[in-house]
From TrEMBL:
This is Galactose mutarotase. SUPFAM superfamilies: Galactose mutarotase-like. Belongs to the aldose epimerase family. The keyword Disulfide bond does not apply. Keywords: Carbohydrate metabolism, Isomerase.
Length: 329
């Protein structure tokens, strides 16, 4: 099957965004060259989108920043917007108080990626980052491959190389709403993790057991019953993707997330507000319109020597694979 690639629109600065539509089995997905963004995802027999998105390109450089995109080169937070890389101190431009979030204004979610390969059921997008771009060393080549595996699995494989030692922590950042409603209040969530990173002023502390805390999601719980969430769940080590989270809507759609990443950031979407841009259901998104599930390495790792390292050295390949499997009751 040939690739379905069309112009999606133009940004305010004149850059052209293209959309690649993938189809196989019971799924169809639309991927944007802007940020390698998952703009829409549909399951046959379900007449509503399963992720948050917009039909307007400008939304993705404004109030829907990071929505559905591949974020990086360093996802999540770097405390104090500073890190030591290959023995040298590096400082970045903070964008969340004193901290750096999702690599700030020079993150890869704001770039137009090249279409490296495309077919009817898969696409590979690539972006090249010059040495020093965003304050990080290394000429870095980053790739994202989306592929639909019938009957209803969307796979995303992220990879990166660098010619200098650098930091790398790519993360896919979709917001899920399986009910097509204004909020995720009808959803339940489970996460197969025995530890979580508590936070202070948004930055992670050391891992603690979830047992006996409000953050224990080893058994499915209704989202309205959970505490405010913007936390990294610490996953058991794995060389291949394994089931780590299950999200179920009240209208019969279920998502099973598998990944080989060592962490899963769960964000409840409490600050969502896409005004003035309408979402895929025709109205702007408001608080709790979607739940973000972001496979990644642990946040602020450069400032925590006991966290899994996010250093990427020349000759190494950074690689992460995630599968989203949808089903209907």
């Amino acid at each position: 099957m040939s690739a379905d690639i069309r112009e999606f629109g133009k940004l305010a600065d004149g850059r052209v965004v293209r959309a690649i539509t993938l189809r196989a089995g019971e799924l169809s997905a639309r991927i944007l060259t802007l940020g390698a963004t998952l703009q829409d995802l549909r399951l046959a027999g379900t007449p509503w989108p399963l992720v948050l998105g917009s039909e307007l390109p400008g939304a993705y450089t404004s109030s829907l920043n990071w929505c559905g995109a591949v974020v990086g080169p360093v996802a999540n937070r770097i405390g104090g917007a500073r890190a030591r890389i290959d023995g040298r101190d590096h400082r970045f431009t903070p964008n969340e108080g004193p901290n750096l979030l999702h690599s700030g204004d020079d993150g890869i979610s704001g770039l137009i990626w090249e279409v490296a390969e495309a077919a009817g059921d898969a696409v590979t997008l690539q972006c090249d980052l010059a040495h020093g771009f965003g304050g990080f060393p290394g000429h870095r080549i980053i790739r994202a491959t989306y592929r639909i595996a019938p009957p209803a699995t969307l796979e995303i494989t992220l990879s990166a190389h660098s010619d200098h030692e650098t930091l790398m922590n790519l993360a896919h950042h979709p917001y899920w709403n399986l009910d097509g409603t204004g909020t995720t209040s009808g959803h339940s969530l489970s996460v197969a993790a025995g530890r979580v990173l508590p936070t202070r002023e948004s930055l992670p502390l050391g891992p603690v057991p979830v047992e006996g805390t409000p953050y224990d999601l080893r058994q499915a719980r209704a989202l309205p019953d959970l505490p405010p969430l913007d936390h990294n769940y610490c996953l058991d080590a794995a060389d291949t993707p394994r089931p780590v989270a299950r999200l179920t809507g009240e209208r019969g759609v279920t998502l099973v997330l598998e990944t080989d990443a060592p962490g899963l950031q769960v964000y409840d979407g409490r600050a969502l507000d896409s005004t003035p841009y309408p979402g895929l259901m025709g109205q702007p998104y408001k608080a709790h319109a979607g739940l973000a599930l972001e496979p990644q390495l642990w946040p602020d790792a450069p400032n925590h020597p006991d966290f899994p390292s996010i250093a990427l050295r020349p000759g190494q390949e950074w690689r992460q694979k995630t599968r989203y499997t949808l089903s209907r009751a």
